[in-house]
Amino acid sequence: MTSEPTVKIQENPIKASEISAEHHPQYMGHEKIFKIEAPEAQFTAFIGIHSTVLGPALGGIRFKYYEDENAALTDVLRLSEAMTWKNAAGGLNHGGGKSVIMASGPDMRKPDENILHLFALGLNIINAPTPVYFGAEDMNMNEESMNIILETSPWIKGGSATGPDIVGGTPSPLTALGVFECMKVAARHKLGSDNLEGLRVSMQGLGNVGGALAEYLHEQGAILTGCDIADQAFDLLKAKGVQVTRVSLEDIYDVPADIFAPNAIGGTLTDDNIQRLNTAGVKIICGAANNQQQDQSGGSQSRLLRNLGVLYCPDYIVNAGGVIWVAKVGENAHTVTDEIRTGVPARFEEILNMHEQNPDQDMAALASLYARKRVEAATK
Questions:
Q1: Which residues are catalytic?
Q2: Residues 326 and 254 in one domain
Q3: I need a labelling partner for 127 at 20 to 30 A (CA). Which of 170, 219, 224, 239 fits?
Q4: Does the global pTM surpass 0.85?
Q5: ω into residue 25 within 30 of 0, thus cis?
């Protein structure tokens, strides 16, 4: 372990240390992994930088309660690797990185200003003297969180926009837009449907991204069933006239549906849950969550879905709209929105075409091949 300089803020020491995780099962040749801590403030965070081959890493900052530090490290390793392929497949000049900040208890849903300030100091340490990572909005973080971090650190993408026609602010609606457009492509390819009207969509998670996706689906006439831990998610949709039949978190896998949209935490596509979805008639899985497969690096769930005849829409391909938005902060908002609306489904169609030419390959394997080609070309 190599220690970096210590910075003090209001008598809370901030230490950023580069740590080794070579023997961790989720280690995938990551370039750097940092642990940022302030023991007196009960603050611990991890930043994983998987690759900077295409440019400084870019990925969200997740605030979440973890049982222990190993659980947090596992999450940051999985997520940062996925960001390498998402950014590469999205045509961005950024590598893959991710941050997790450990909440001090299971009931702590949102970081306070001190936590965000401490994390910002950590960002400044790891990015000196050469920038290696930009943070962005993720679970339990929002536009206000990004603005607070920006008061101390410049290494953030996604603070408030400087004008109505300028890219900035929360990327959630753009993530939802890309998923929605890919869902239409998938329905046409798998179900022979020109639109989503009358199709049954079961939605796991109706937060910032899932809620925006539900609005798009409702406007197109889809029949929605959903689950979420927060009552407010359903209240907000109801106020907008969006009808979603509510089921429990556990029952969502058994809802008769044409399409299943995982929009919350990762790892929910287990072998057992996939069998339940298949029994419920699901033919397409297309959602905004990251790392949807339980065996994300091995891809075994993608292979199972192929064998069952279920079309799996690779997560980091279809949910790339958000990261494209934050990567282009300061550019023309209308241009970037159009790029997401057309570019994300176009890349998904390229992978569908690869699948038609290589039917023995599963969709996750083909998406990985698609993304890795760009990284490998840059390496050479």
A1: 98
A2: yes
A3: 170
A4: yes
A5: no
